[in-house]
Design brief:
Length: 579
Amino acid sequence: MQPLLLVSEESQFLIRILNGSFQTLNIIKDRVFHAFGDLFCSKANLDVIDTRQDNVVQSVNREEQGSNDWSSKGNNSNLEGDSRVGFNVLDAMLKHSLDRLKCMRERVSSAEAGISNCNLEINFNRDSYVIRAMCLDGKLGAALSLWCNMIQHSIIPDGITHNYLINGLCKKGELEKAEWIVRGMLYRGPSPTCATYNSLIRGYCLMNGVDKALNTFSTMANHGIIPSRVTCNILVHALCKKGLVEEAKKLFHKLLSKNHDGGSSDLITSTIMMDGCFKNGDTDQALAFWERMLKEGIKVDKVSYNVVVHGFCMSHDVGTAYKYCCEMLKLGFLPDVYSYNTLVGALCKKGKTSDACYIYDVMTRMGVTPDQITYKMIIQGLCINREIDRAGCFLEYMLQKSIIPEPLVWNVIIDGYGRCGDIEKASYIRDKMVAFDVLPNIFTYNALIYAQIKSGNLFAAQSLEKEMLLCGLTPDSVTYNLLIGAACNLGLIHSALQLHDQMLRKGCQPDVITYSKLLKVFCLQGMMKEADKLFGKLLASGLAVDHVPFLILMKRYCRMREFDKVFDLYQKWLVAMPR
């Protein structure tokens, strides 16, 4: 608006000067109006222009009247000079006004270009942030689609956005797409970084593709990328996990000399090597890495001690594991739940459940909250030692702390009570399991069926089998073997055969235990033709036959004094048994 006001003021000044001319005044006035009319009409605000034009017309009329009065009295000899002066002033003012208009248009164009560039930058940043957010949320399909859309519009996301996308694809196992994106980065940019290759190498290692990971590692140098200590850690961990400890050691010593990061990274690599050696059974080599860290002054942390404790527990040296736990405490490292779980698991495997319960008391007094794994190991250990009531107490501890056990924990206690013949407590645990919204599974019902069968209640066991079907669970071979075995023990051959037929109709294939139980009842009932026919089916089934079916038939034929058949069975046994 301000340039328009300036132009209007200049036009009024110009017209006052031109009124000094006599005969050329009207011509000049018309030209001025045409020139400035074109100039003002190019602007958007016509209301302002019309107002300014009215003011100009009124001013020109007043000046024209005055000039006519003056010209009637003036001298004709100054006409040419006045006309030349007027045209010079007009040219100067027009040139000045046009220059100002040009500058104004350039400023507007520059502002519009700046706004456009700003919008492009905002859209670019927005799309990049959206891709990263979707990768973090696991929405890789949408992220990849948006990335492709940006590429099609010649908008190349930055390296960080590419790394988010590659990392997400590698975690999901879509390594071909990740590798395709890396090839695109090499072709169009941005150039891949060490973090890019680390994600790709980690993805191959997670998918057990260590060979491809090593190939990718070897191509990094071809693209001018120096592997970092993180790259080394990924590969060393993958090699150790696969049992290739010697190859891991070679890579470890090769990269040690390059001193990539040092410090904590050296600690991480050495800890990975220690863990690999312990799991490979090489305790001496693991301790050599431990001594090297201490000798070089590397500050070990809680994780390193946990690896050592876990290593000695795997080698059943719980006493040395205790020693390193005490050393942790002296150095100010409080053992965490992983440390205590390692000790609890080792003690339960050795049958020392009282010591495991003592460790549980220690960790609670130290302010370390037991987790699902702690309770699971203790309850399993107690049930194996037939301390079912004590295991039930730990179940109550879990529920009091609002820790809902997984079905396996409930099933272990139910099975423990069932093996002890305490059907009432087994059913009580099952009811409590349902009350806490944990649905019984096939193992739960098998444990209850076993408990009923052990008590001699076949009818209740069969009722549980029907209840399984109503709950949408399909009985497995264990279920049918329990029921068939119970029917055979009671001499109910017809019921056992019915269960066998039902088993086949349900698509559950009999195993060696099934055939052995049926063979036993046939032999006891003297039904040797049926026994021989069933034995033939067993040999033709392709199952790995053990010694039990052969011994059942051989014992029966020995009692029948048919030694030729016993010898034939022995010959078949030698052929069937693996060498």
